[in-house]
Every structure is written in structure tokens, then in C-alpha cells.
Amino acid sequence: MGTLLQIRQNYIDKLSSIYDAEEAKALFQIGVEALMGINKLQLSLQLQNQLNSVDETALQDLLVDLSTGKPIQHILGHAPFYGAEFLVNAHTLIPRPETEELVDLILRDHQNQENLRLIDIGTGSGCIAISLQNNLKNANTVAVDISQDALAIARENAKRQKATVDFRCLDILEWELTFGDETYDIIVSNPPYITEEEMSSMHHNVLQHEPHSALFVPQEAPLLFYDYIADFALTHLKPNGHLYFEINQYLAQETKDLMLKKGFKNAVIFEDINAVPRMLKVY
Ligand SMILES: C[S@@+](CC[C@H](N)C(=O)[O-])C[C@H]1O[C@@H](n2cnc3c(N)ncnc32)[C@H](O)[C@@H]1O
User: Exposed, middle or buried, 137 (CB in 10 Å: 0-12/13-18/19+)?
Assistant: First the structure.
């Protein structure tokens, strides 16, 4: 039987063709926390500890799965987001830390307001909609996605987290046919925004294992979803309502300009914790 340190070295060696050493260490840490309940700080203090055979087998099995390139969140079946665990599978985008920052921005802007009507467009696992619904007072949240399979996971996440969200399956590019005259205080979306050109620089485990319909847009129309959602917002946002987007960092200014061209008075770009332009607030 080995120590945690030895098994971690195993992870670094066996995953070296897919992940660099820091990524392999991070995956090991996530695995240790999920399988053994040991957090980062505890791990650093227990690296020399001998493992029992059950834990060692579990960590070795995880390593076998990881070496196929499958994301750890798909292997474990869940991913953390804004203080909760969300079920994920091959039909849902794995919630990203930068999207937590978008949720945080919205909550900071609206924390003292009650009875807000919200819509999350392209909800995936439901991470944005459920986090907002559960952190705002008496909110009324609608969440839409084109994928029935993603919505099935989102509904299960809402049930587990006791969030009442009205999930609807529809194509937002056809919103003129599918929406009535309902209006919202907050419209939020993290839509597909990665261009085919950017695809080549992406980690192959994202390319192979995450749904392409959640990620990619045609090279010739990178702002397709922003264009349609802005038009939707022009008719479905309440007079003092706010539209929030996660944005493509390379198209931040273009996305802002598009909003101003559509007639919105204000469009403010926000950077994430890594100083990357990542969010846009439009009102
Ligand atoms: C980038 S993912 C965001 C998922 C989730 N909101 C998150 O932040 O993790 C984009 C989502 O938009 C959905 N989507 C793609 N095309 C759509 C369309 N035409 N209408 C509605 N939803 C769409 C995808 O199925 C996917 O779940």
C-alpha cells in the first residue's frame, strides 16, 4: 500500500500525456476530497499517511477513468458551483468558476430586492438559475434550453436543491414564436460563444467530452446568441431591468458595441478574478 504522496506522483506520471503536473495534482486533490472527504489543507498535512486498501483502490480506479481523458466532473457525476453540488453529465456543460462570478455580480446588484422575475437562457445544468433562485428573496425564475437532456439534469438539480424554477425546452433563436408578452427584471445568459478558430486551442478533454451545442458558434457569426438575446431583451425586459451575459473575452468590446447599437443606454464590461473581460451588464 502507498502513501497519498506516492499515489499523487502516480497521477502526475500516468496523466502526463493529457494534463500537466499542476492539473494532475488538482485532479488528485478533487478526487481525494470527493472520495475520502479530505480537503486541500488536510491533504497537505496527510501526504505521508499510508492509505487503506479501500481508499487506494478508489483513487486508482479514478486514475484509470481519468486517463481516458474523461473530465473528473463526469466521472464523479457532479461539480461544485456557488456553494452547492450540481449533477452533470455529457449533455450539460460543466459549470465553470467564471460563471460563479457572473452569479455573484447579479446577486451583489440585486441582493436587497424581492419578487424579481428572472430568465436564464441556455441553462444547461441549471447552475445559474438555481443559484439565483435560491439566493434572492421570493424570486420567480424561468430557465430555458434547447436540450431536453440538459433540462432533465437541471430539473433534478432544482429538485435536490429545493429550488422552484420553471424549466422550458425551446430554441432561443426562435423566441419570437415561443414567447408571449411576459417581461423580466433580469435576463441572464451564458450562451455558446466559442468560435471554430478557438476550438484548436482548447483542451482535448473539453472537445471530446462536453456538448458542442453548448460551446460553439459559427465562425462567421460569433455573436449570434448575443444578437438574438439582445432583441429578446428589448421587448421582454422591464423598464428598469438588467441584462447580464457571460462573454467571449476576445469579443468583449464587439459584444458591448452590439448592445449599444441595439439601443441600450449602458453596457459595462466586468473582468473576472484573472483580469479577463468576462461579463457584460446591459441596462
Ligand atoms: C455555455 S452553455 C451554458 C450552460 C450553463 N448556463 C452554465 O453556465 O454552465 C450554453 C447552453 O445553451 C444551450 N443552447 C444552445 N443553443 C441553444 C438555443 N438555440 N436555444 C436555447 N438554448 C441553447 C446549450 O444546450 C447549453 O446548455
Answer: exposed
Tell how far the Cα of 190 is from the centroid of ligand 1, in angstroms. Answer: 7
Lookup: cell for 34: 470527493
User: Whose C-alpha lies nearest to ligand 1, atom 6?
Assistant: 123
Tell me the CATH number of domain 89-282, given options 3.40.1160.10, 3.40.50.150, 3.40.50.300, 1.10.760.10.
Answer: 3.40.50.150
Strand partners, 3: 50
Q: Write down the pLDDT at residue 1.
A: 75
Question: What is the total residue count of the chain?
Answer: 283
Ligand 1: nearest atom to the Cα of 147 = 25
Pocket test for ligand 1, best of 141, 155, 169, 190 (most atoms within 8 A of CB): 190
Taking the domains of the chain in order of start, what are their residue ranges? 4-68, 89-282
* For residue 122, pLDDT beyond 90: yes
Tell how far the Cα of 44 is from the centroid of ligand 1, in angstroms: 38
Are 120 and 229 in contact, with CB atoms under 8 Å apart? no
Helices (H) and strands (E) in the chain, counts: 14, 11
Task: Tell me the three cell numbers of residue 228.
Answer: 438574438
Q: What is the pLDDT of residues 227-264, one digit of tens each?
A: 999 999 999 999 999 999 999 999 999 999 999 999 99
The residue whose C-alpha atom lies closest to atom 11 belonging to ligand 1 is: 122
Q: What is the pLDDT of residue 206?
A: 85
Nearest CA to ligand 1 atom 26: 214
Q: What is the pLDDT of residue 196?
A: 85
The predicted structure's pLDDT at residue 199: 86
Q: Per residue in 138-186, pLDDT tens? A: 999 999 999 999 999 999 999 999 999 999 999 999 999 999 999 999 9
